[in-house]
Design a protein that fits this description.
By secondary structure, this protein is mostly beta strands. The chain is built from 2 helices and 14 strands; from the N terminus they run E-E-E-E-E-E-E-E-E-E-E-E-E-E-H-H. A 4-stranded antiparallel sheet has the order 4-5-6-7, with no helix packed on it. The chain has a 4-stranded antiparallel sheet with strand order 8-9-10-11, with no helix packed on it. The protein has a 3-stranded antiparallel sheet with strand order 1-2-3, with no helix packed on it. The longest helix has 11 residues.
């Protein structure tokens, strides 16, 4: 059993969980059976708000108060990626179950990233207050978010499913501008407006 801590909690050598946040903003993992430190990953420039392991346990992502996200190779203890997700605090992180994507929430916004490259894939801005939790469905097809606005939203992430759901509700043909804005496509795919 492994416990990974951020600067919110610092576990001193003697295993006492009381203590101050670490001054260098380290991310540390502890073996709960032996009390031994098994991982010590560099530092952030600001305190870390969330840490999550990839589904295969090979990577560890950390979200900081300064808006930066880092992804680490757990076995090698090396930083794989570092990117600025927001110009303010990142509240939560979530890996897609296949490990290919990572979602971040900060303020009222959710951003989805390619977990290998750090490229931003999607920005979602439909909550009216801060988003404090996000989670992928077990099959990775949906993303749920919970906000202080009192709503929980579940979004379709697969483009084909999204187009089919939108087509079922759309009573006219898509415009090219709507395909760009809502589907993030330069041109409308065939049959998006046919009923």
């Amino acid at each position: 059993n492994i416990l990974t801590t951020s600067p919110w909690v610092n576990i001193p050598e003697e295993g006492n969980i009381e203590g101050e946040a670490s001054a260098d903003q380290r991310i540390v993992s502890w073996d709960l059976d032996s009390g031994e430190q098994v991982l010590n990953l560099g530092s952030h420039s600001d305190w870390v708000r969330d840490v999550v392991y990839s589904p295969d346990g090979g990577r560890l992502a950390a979200a900081a108060q300064d808006g930066w996200v880092t992804i680490w190779d757990v076995a090698a203890g090396e930083q794989l990626l570092s990117f600025e997700a927001f110009n303010h605090a990142v509240f939560r992180l979530a890996f897609r179950p296949d490990g290919s994507q990572m979602a971040t929430s900060g303020g009222k916004v959710i951003k989805i990233w390619d977990a290998a490259t750090g490229d931003r894939l999607i920005t979602l801005e439909d909550h009216k207050a801060e988003v404090y939790d996000i989670a992928y469905s077990p099959d990775g097809r949906y993303l749920a978010s919970a906000s202080l606005d009192g709503t929980v939203r579940i979004r379709i992430l697969e483009l084909d499913e999204l187009i089919a759901a939108a087509q079922a509700r759309l009573t006219r043909t898509w415009t090219e501008e709507e395909c760009k804005q809502f589907l993030h496509l330069e041109t409308c795919p065939p049959n998006t407006g046919e009923h």
